[in-house]
Amino acid sequence: xxxxxxxxxxxxxxxxxxxxxxxxxxxxxxxxxxxxxxxxxxxxxxxxxxxxxxxxxxxxxxxxxxxxxxxxxxxxxxxxxxxxxxxxxxxxxxxxxxxxxxxxxxxxxxxxxxxxxxxxxxxxxxxxxxxxxxxxxxxxxxxxxxxxxxxxxxxxxxxxxxxxxxxxxxxxxxxxxxxxxxxxxxxxxxxxxxxxxxxxxxxxxxxxxxxxxxxxxxxxxxxxxxxxxxxxxxxxxxxxxxxxxxxxxxxxxxxxxxxxxxxxxxxxxxxxxxxxxxxxxxxxxxxxxxxxxxxxxxxxxxxxxxxxxxxxxxxxx
Length: 317
What we know:
Blueprint: E1 3-5, E2 12-14, E3 16-19, H1 30-42, E4 47-49, H2 58-67, E5 76-81, H3 96-110, E6 115-120, H4 129-141, E7 145-151, H5 155-168, E8 173-177, H6 191-198, E9 201-205, H7 242-249, H8 252-257, H9 262-271, E10 276-281, H10 286-293, H11 302-312
Parallel strand pairs: 3-4, 3-10, 4-5, 5-6, 6-7, 7-8, 8-9, 9-10
Antiparallel strand pairs: 1-2
Helix pairs in contact: 1-2, 1-10, 2-3, 3-4, 5-6
């Protein structure tokens, strides 16, 4: 496993991180979730990402329980705040009240004294940005949080936060957690250039496009019975369009000539970006963790990148 600095901070995170959205605390039995987390740790993965809203706190509890087997200083624990955690008017958003109360609740569920990376899960237009940044800064001053990040913020929103934190001498944002993969490249135009300038690293989610880039979904065929797309209750937001699935199948020979699985090819593609600090995978089985972890350190050639763009229709031959 190779490691990268989280933005322009001194914190080093594994190129492959393990997330818990839609899996731990919900769809995946607790025993299996713990096995995945332990296998990830054995393989050198030190970055574990969760959120208070995942399974309404159950994900944090399972992740905390699994990681309690290891020394606290040997891993980087990340969680998030923003989405509703109750029915009250202050049980959501990025107000100082909600941030403070949810941080304490997350610490209790995670069974730890501090959170390495505390992230604003979305932008809150109903709360003054200064209030949010000052609340996060207080948590850092109290030692409850070490680093601050955001998720799915626009370039303008990140830029405003950077300038305000600098003007007020507050702890700065060191990371952004966006959606990013071979099929979803939206952050390349504005977000990545801004973050490169400001020392903010990307910890990207859905690098496999919810499994589409693994090649397991075939055009003209129903999804495999054990896949997320086959579960009507899953939060599958990727549309299984036959044209897209046909293009994805063109990636197979590119992966094979490099001795990679299609999942490893997709992860290595994300990691070609120096601004990407880590790619966050999801896994129901330890074997999936093992396959994905092997993508760390893979360097794709210019020929590979060109052929990927041609296969997916981002470039003509």
